[in-house]
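FORM 12-B: Structure-to-Sequence Request
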């Protein structure tokens, strides 16, 4: 054995829909019914699990605050830890090995910390470095900086119409704006203060902040998984080294 399973290959190169089907989920296109029907009306008759082809990730829009990788999917459906999930995938897919000499990148070594309520820059740093940014759609990535830039420095509120958001974010549809704002509300970084109707939806005030403890819990959980993945990689490297030594000294 020359190395340990390449976790990055698993997450980016093995189609998540393939993993979902192997787990017994009924996949139709890029949707599937949730394996937690008790959380849904009508046992999730209208599928709530969506698969993001470009990012190779999944998310149930009822149960999950953020998306997950195919390793996360195996862990969730089978109720196993990351090590068992990786073994399960390796038992079904051809996964290449990573050399035992591979070092962690600086981003992998990052230890998360919060600097909330200070500035939009600190919020963006938390979102990007936690891994949430990669889960955002292009429209969400365009809209969030607009809300931060338009925030009044005295009270943190951005008072702007849908038309204004569309213009400065380069978004062509009010529905797209509404969907992005709901997403921000769902991860607890946005509070909306409803205003008067301007003819194209209301002129609302938006407060974007990382102060909500529920958002901090989401980020903490994501970072916990990152640390767990790094530890699993360390353990797998150690196992590979021990196996190699055992082979050499037979």
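FORM 12-B RESPONSE
SEQUENCE OUT:
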């Amino acid at each position: 054995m020359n190395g340990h399973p390449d976790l990055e290959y698993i997450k980016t190169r093995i189609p998540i829909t393939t993993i979902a089907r192997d787990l017994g989920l009924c996949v139709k296109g890029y949707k599937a019914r949730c394996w937690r029907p008790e959380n849904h009306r009508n046992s999730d008759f209208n599928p709530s699990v969506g698969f993001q082809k470009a990012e190779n990730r999944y998310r149930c829009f009822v149960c999950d605050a953020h998306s997950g990788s195919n390793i996360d999917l195996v862990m969730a459906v089978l109720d196993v830890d990351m090590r068992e999930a990786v073994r399960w995938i390796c038992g079904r897919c051809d996964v290449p090995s990573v050399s035992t000499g591979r070092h962690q990148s600086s981003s992998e070594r990052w230890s998360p910390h919060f600097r909330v309520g200070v500035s939009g820059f600190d919020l963006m740093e938390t979102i990007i470095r936690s891994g949430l940014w990669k889960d955002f759609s292009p429209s969400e990535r365009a809209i969030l900086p607009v809300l931060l830039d338009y925030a009044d420095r005295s009270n943190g509120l951005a008072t702007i119409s849908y038309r204004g958001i569309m213009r400065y974010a380069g978004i062509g549809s009010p529905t797209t704006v509404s969907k992005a704002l709901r997403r921000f509300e769902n991860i607890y970084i946005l509070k909306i203060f409803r205003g008067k109707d301007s003819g194209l939806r209301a002129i609302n005030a938006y407060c974007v902040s990382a102060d909500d403890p529920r958002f901090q819990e989401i980020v903490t959980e994501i970072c916990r998984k990152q640390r767990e993945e790094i530890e699993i990689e360390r353990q797998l490297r150690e196992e590979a080294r021990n196996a190699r030594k055992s082979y050499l000294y037979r």
